[in-house]
Amino acid sequence: MPALTAELAAEGANDYAMVFEFGWVPDPLLVAALSSGYTNSFFGATSPEVPIAISCTSFPKDFTLFDGKDVCGFTNRDLLAQVQQATNRPRIIYGDWGSTKPRSYGHARQPKNRIDYPTATEWILARDKDDDVSFQVAAQRILDSGYWVGNLGIWGEQLIAGTAAGQAFAIDTMPKMYSARINIHLHRQAFYDHLPPPEALDEESSDDDF
To answer: Which residue, 23, 92, 93, 35, is CA-closest to 59?
Structure first.
């Protein structure tokens, strides 16, 4: 890596990006020092225009201890801030796994029903430790959690609200729940700290579009 970056710097190249991918970690802050060290040692001579993305996930691997309604924080944004401060690089890019985790190829047990709701820096998890709660009950716990926004204007949030209301085409499988969670998480991180109003997400359409 040092030889490669030195060669690129000598050529004056800046039309590339680097990604540090750490996969699953217990806490993203555990890779802050490593990310900063790599950035300073590998990219000291490179143009500040070269973006460096840092990606990892701490999304839970095991849900057996979660019960009722629990809050699980993630520190990817704090990781980014620490690396920016330690390296003084202007283009440190946020990355994560979209609220997923690296695939496990073992023989996992069928997961119990739950509803996950992402905030900007937490996941709100509604499930039962001992019993298999219904998706409708779990969704209602999310709505009553104090973290629910309800006006993001995206289908993932609407799907959770519809589940709590008992709508027929709402969440009734775990893959549907995963899709709703990922949709909300990606929206929140893409517009981090600057969430658009729902009307800004509407797109004009006409019969000619179909």
So the answer is: 23
pLDDT, tens digit, 9 for 90 and up, residues 81-127: 999 999 999 999 999 999 998 887 665 678 899 999 999 999 999 99
- 107-137 b/e with 16+ CB inside 10 Å = b? eeeeebbbbbbbbeeebbbbbbeeeebebbe
Q: Cβ(82)–Cβ(36) under 8 Å?
A: yes
Which ranges constitute the DSSP H helices of 88-165?
Answer: 135-143, 155-164
As given in the structure block, the two tokens for residue 103 are 């695939």
State the DSSP code for 188: H
Count the neighbouring beta carbons within 10 Å of the beta carbon of residue 69.
18
**Does the model's pTM come out above 0.85?**
yes
pLDDT tens sequence across 54-70: 999 999 999 999 999 99
In whole angstroms, what is the distance from residue 106 CA to residue 2 CA? 37
Fill in the amino acid letter for 104. Answer: S
| Locus of tokens 């690129």 | 8
Residue with tokens 């937490």: 122
